[in-house]
Design goal:
Elements: H1 3-20, H2 36-42, E1 51-67, E2 71-78, E3 81-88, H3 94-103, E4 109-118, E5 124-135, H4 151-156, H5 158-164, H6 166-188, E6 192-193, E7 199-200, E8 212-215, E9 220-224, H7 229-237, E10 242-250, E11 262-271, H8 275-294, E12 298-301, E13 304-307, E14 313-316, H9 317-325, H10 334-343, H11 353-364, E15 373-376, E16 400-405, E17 408-409, E18 411-415, H12 420-435, H13 446-454, E19 459-465, H14 466-474
Parallel strand pairs: 3-5, 6-10, 14-15
Antiparallel strand pairs: 1-2, 1-4, 2-3, 4-5, 7-9, 8-9, 10-11, 11-19, 12-13, 15-16, 16-17, 16-18, 18-19
Helix pairs in contact: 5-6, 6-8, 7-13, 9-11, 10-11, 12-13
Length: 491
């Protein structure tokens, strides 16, 4: 029998013995009045070997303890931090001391009542007068000095990670602050927060492979949302002028440090705006949130200092290729671009000028973009939902930008296409591509086209990857470190 099996067997024996005494090891509630952090703040100035008469009542998980005979020390951990508890002969009732020594183990939840005091060494503590078992732990916690060494185990058993690694909880507290700050920023600018469906009969709004499911009651196939875009545009048609949503998106694509099959996005749509307005909005929200949660627009990420202070650098896609690859795509024919891609073993989605330019940018430029940079004026082929560039006489470019930082894309934005006739043609072309096997093409959405025929004003729209923002602002290297329950391959 292994050590863990022995521990579990011993704890089960204790559990049965506790029940036999008439004590419920899993009571229904406990009136917790004090939190660890509040006790530390309130009593930070009391002197060593001083006891406060006022009683406190708190609860939490016992993380470790030392029994020295006439006195026992233990650490109680709640969602705000830790505080020491002390059970001392003649000060703690004998019944409570005996119960603690006989039945309580590391990992148990207990409630205590007693007096605050400071030890000789200055450790704020609770002198226990009453003890209540709230939940008997049957399995041991990972040893404190070893923790959870296997990172995958941390993701699979996030509950253990949160117990053992306090820094993990701080990341997710900061994630919550980021959500709050984004909403605060947009509410101050009179944006309305809305919700869009996750289950859709027709998906759209991004070049992505969807997840498919089935609704039994209607016997129809459904798709998990890959983007809220087309629903938010319907709201602009309906009379909203400023809308946003923070939503889960589901894309059946690769998994790596920047990608998880389900992830969180914010999308914003503003009537009477274009992609220039969206650029200003994007850098504003990033600098605002960085200052709110970190106190500065500067962060440290993978050993480099990144500054989100506006204005961010702006660079067209062709200029970026010229800068980093010394290639002037604007002067090259399709055949020359295809040959160049073949020479560098670069895959092109389709044999067109636009897709070749996109592929060259991804290969030569993306990982070079360390500081926040807007890459503007993408090739026409890359999306069917964007206006063509107003200054491009060749009609090869669209008014689209992607912001980059630390070598990765942070979002996406357009001057939104609102010409229903052109939109219909582009979506019909996408439907043909989908039928020919392009799994990332957009299906034809008749109701969306109908909405545009009713009329949509000039509109700027943007999407911002929340998980990537959290990674940057918390200094985490993997998207799994900022999602509480990331997708994990089944064992």
């Amino acid at each position: 029998m292994g050590r863990e099996e022995q521990i579990i067997k011993e704890r089960l024996r204790k559990l049965n013995e506790i029940k036999s005494t008439g004590v419920n090891p899993y009571p229904y509630n406990f009136e917790k009045k004090d939190k660890a952090i509040e006790l530390h703040k309130k009593h930070s100035k009391i002197k060593p070997e001083t006891t406060i008469k006022a009683k406190v009542k708190t609860a939490g998980r016992l993380t470790n303890f030392r029994d020295l005979g006439k006195i026992a020390f233990a650490v109680l951990q709640d969602d705000t931090g830790k505080i020491q508890i002390v059970l001392q002969e003649k000060q703690t009732p004998e019944e409570a001391r005996k119960f603690f020594k006989k039945y309580i183990d590391s990992g148990d939840f207990i409630g205590v009542e007693g007096n605050i005091f400071k030890t000789k060494k200055g450790e704020l503590s609770i002198l226990v007068k009453k003890l209540t078992l709230l939940s008997k732990s049957l399995k041991p916690l990972p040893e404190k000095w070893h923790g959870i060494q296997d990172k995958e185990e941390r993701y699979r058993k996030r509950y253990l990670d949160l117990i053992i690694t306090p820094e993990t909880k701080e990341v997710f507290k900061k994630r919550e602050q980021i959500f709050h700050s984004i909403r605060e920023f947009l509410k101050e600018r009179n944006f309305n927060e809305v919700e869009t469906p996750y289950l859709q009969t027709i998906y759209g709004g991004a070049n992505a492979r969807p997840f498919k499911t089935h609704l039994n009651s209607l016997d129809i196939d459904l798709f998990l949302a890959i983007s809220p875009e087309l629903y938010l545009k319907r709201l602009i048609v309906g009379g909203y002028e400023k809308v946003f949503t923070i939503s889960r998106n589901f894309r059946n694509e690769g998994i790596d440090r920047w990608h998880n099959p389900e992830f969180t996005m914010m999308e914003i749509y503003q009537a009477y705006a274009d992609y220039n307005d969206m650029m200003a909005l994007f850098e504003d929200v990033y600098s605002y949130v960085a200052k709110k949660v970190n106190g500065s627009t500067k962060i440290q990420f993978r050993g480099k200092t990144i500054d989100f202070k506006k204005p961010w650098e702006r660079m067209t896609m062709d200029k970026a290729i010229k800068k980093f690859a010394k290639i002037d795509v604007s002067q090259m024919s399709d055949r020359e671009l295809f040959s160049l891609a073949d020479e560098n073993k670069i895959q092109i989605k389709e044999k067109t000028w636009g897709w070749a330019v996109q592929a060259l940018f991804e290969h030569f430029c993306e990982d070079k973009l360390e500081q926040p940079t807007f890459i503007l004026d993408h090739p026409l082929e890359t999306t069917p939902l964007c206006k063509t560039h107003r200054d491009d006489k060749l009609c090869r470019l669209i008014e689209r930008f992607e912001p980059f930082c630390a070598g990765v894309e942070l979002g996406n934005a357009y001057s939104e296409l609102n010409d229903p006739i052109l939109q219909k043609e582009l979506l019909e072309e996408q439907q043909k591509m989908l039928s020919k096997g392009d799994a990332e093409a957009n299906p034809y959405d008749e109701d969306f086209v109908n909405a545009l025929e009713i009329g949509m004003p000039p509109t700027g729209g943007l999407g911002l990857g929340i998980d990537r923002m959290v990674m940057l602002l918390t200094g985490q290297d993997s998207i799994r470190d900022v999602i509480l329950f990331p997708f994990m391959k089944p064992r």
